[in-house]
Design brief:
By secondary structure, the protein is mainly β. Helix content is 0%, strand content 45%. Keywords: Disulfide bond, Immunoglobulin domain, Repeat.
Length: 583
């Protein structure tokens, strides 16, 4: 009969294990081992060995498993057989080993985390004590793995966090029991979703291009901070000048590469702008770069000076004043002002355009032509050039001031009017031809044996309102010390002088008179009366009036008696400048 055998026993997979069975009875005793219902034949299954020995009145049989295997976790039986019968002893062997790896599945993947779940299959005939999860970038080796260890055996799911967006990971898992760690689970590959970039664009620079544009350049964010494929950029810009609202205007552009360029245009002239740049991908927009500033280039002022005024001070001096254009329209650093002016003559011609530059808001224009119409404009200018001119302002210089005509060409005598010696301190200012325009186009023709007719045109530069004309008649060979003088109205441009001596030459010239005094004399013409001379008049013209007497006697006292005034002709005869002899 079987006297000794274990009921249950444990073996470790891969290790050797011995099962002993002891029988007592009539000899001979045969002991046979069975695994389940199968007789163990060591000759056929080399992993098993059976050894039997006598031990006094007992027979001991030993079954060796070399080594134990998972399949040995069954009932083994030993059978003792003699001539009297058979006895059997059952032994339950449990082979323990590290567990099988869990079956891993991915339930959810986000940009920075993933959710896992697993199922534990064979536990190795030992209670599971925990789990380990390992993961890495797919391109790395497992030497650079990250782990989540000692997960409770009661848990069958976990969240892995702190992953990097838009990355590819490999993940595997282990189970543990008291025997050891399982083999790794099947390796899974997952891709995290994109997330908004974690870094701003790099190396942002600004370059003013024109008065209304700035070029922005930058580089893509650092690769590890892009969190996906950079799709484009948002450029924010705002005016940082006083009074601006501080809000960014946003423009968007598609990404083209690692380096980008964008030109902001339609900006305000000579204004400071702050600019930031943000990258975006499919998941969103990343942080902005630090704001940097640039100022658009200067331009010319877009508005003229304001409140432009012109004041005539004298006959050749005018004062022009104005105020600064609005600061917002200067478009640069104001360098100064330019006053542009030119004369307008009665014949419609323009004088040369002149300009004066000043840093003040007032300027005196000197050396202007007397009693002349002028057009005046004012502009402001910056480094970029001249701005918009003001509207044309019209001004007329005043009539000429007191002056005396040049001294006559004859010798000074006691009969002449008293006056200071030329060149002394008491000499009044004299009018140059430039200052006082003489009558133009003087002509004279004989009208009879004792009379002549002289005609002229108004001065081109009268320097004032002509009040009258003075006609001078002088006979050099008569011994007359000074010319005779005659006056006529400003509308009459001719004069008849009678009672002349036939065959005697006379010098004639004319001067215009304004409220400021007598101007320069015209050119002198020489004439002598002639017999049987007929004056040609326009058809239907009236007869000439009786003229004044040009005497060879001493001239009248000009300081005490009035000058003779010729009677005015009818208006039809005021064009007698065309008089000529009818030979």
């Amino acid at each position: 009969m079987i006297t000794s055998h274990p009921n249950t026993t444990i073996a470790i997979k891969g290790h050797a294990k011995e099962l002993n069975c002891t029988a007592r009875g009539e000899r001979p005793i045969i002991i046979r081992w069975e695994k389940g219902d199968t007789v163990i034949d060591p000759d056929r299954v080399m992993r098993y060995a059976i050894a039997t020995k006598d031990n006094g009145d007992e027979v001991v049989s030993t079954l060796k498993l070399k080594p134990a295997d998972r399949g040995d976790s069954v009932f083994f039986s030993c059978h003792a057989i003699n001539s009297y019968g058979e006895d059997r002893g059952l032994i339950q062997l449990t082979v323990q080993e590290p567990p099988d790896p869990p079956e891993l599945e991915i339930r959810e993947v986000k940009a920075r985390s993933m959710n896992l779940r697993w199922t534990q299959r064979f536990d190795g005939n030992s209670i599971i004590t925990g789990f380990d999860i390992e993961y890495k970038n797919k391109s790395d080796s497992w030497d650079f793995k990250q782990s989540t260890r000692n997960i409770s055996p009661t848990i069958n799911q976990a969240n892995i966090v702190d992953l990097h967006p838009a990355s590819v990971y490999s993940i595997r898992m282990y189970s543990f029991n008291k025997i050891g760690r399982s083999e790794p689970s099947k390796e899974l590959t997952i891709s995290t979703e994109e997330a908004a970039p974690d870094g701003p664009p790099m190396d942002v620079t600004l370059q003013p291009v024109t008065s209304q544009s700035i070029q922005v350049t930058w580089k893509a964010p650092k690769k590890e901070l892009q969190n996906g494929v950079i799709r484009g950029y948002q450029i924010g810009y705002r005016e940082n000048s006083p009074g601006s609202n501080g809000q960014y205007s946003i423009v968007e552009m598609k990404a083209t590469g690692d380096s980008e360029v964008y030109t902001l245009d339609n900006l305000k002239k000579f204004a400071q702008y702050g600019v930031v740049v943000q990258a975006f991908n499919r998941a969103g927009t990343g942080p902005s770069s630090s704001e940097i500033n640039a100022t658009t280039l200067e331009d010319v002022p877009s508005q003229p000076p304001e409140n432009v005024r012109a004041l005539s001070i004298t006959s050749d001096v005018a004062v022009i004043s104005w105020s600064e254009p609005p600061r917002s329209t200067l478009n640069g650093v104001l360098k100064g002002y330019r006053v542009i002016f030119w004369s307008l003559y009665v014949d419609g011609e323009w004088g040369a355009m002149q300009n004066v530059t000043t840093a003040r808001e007032r300027v005196e224009l000197r050396g202007m032509e007397k009693f002349t119409n002028y057009s005046v404009q004012v502009l402001a200018y910056t480094q970029a050039g001249d701005g918009v001119r003001s509207s044309v302002l019209y001004i007329q210089t005043k009539e000429d001031g007191e002056c005396v005509p040049p001294a006559p060409a004859w010798p000074r005598t006691a009969r002449q009017l008293p006056g200071p010696v030329p060149g002394t301190a008491l000499e009044p200012p004299r009018c140059s031809r430039k200052e006082r325009g003489p009558p133009a186009g003087i002509k004279a023709v004989p009208s009879s044996a004792s009379s002549v007719v002289v005609s002229w045109l108004p001065p081109t530069k009268p320097n004032g309102v002509i009040r009258k004309y003075t006609i001078f008649c002088f006979s050099p060979g008569s011994g007359q010390p000074a010319p005779s003088e005659y006056e006529t109205s400003p509308e009459q441009l001719f004069y008849r002088i009678a009672h002349l001596n036939r065959g005697q030459q006379y010098l004639l010239w004319v001067a215009a008179v304004t409220s400021a005094g007598r101007g320069n004399g015209s050119e002198k013409v020489t004439i002598e009366p002639a017999g049987k001379v007929h004056v040609f008049l326009a058809p239907g013209g009236p007869p000439l009036p009786q003229a004044a007497f040009c005497s060879s006697a001493a001239p009248p006292d000009l300081t005490s008696s009035p000058k003779p005034i010729a009677p005015a002709l009818p208006s039809e005869e005021r064009n007698l400048h065309s008089l000529r002899p009818n030979l």
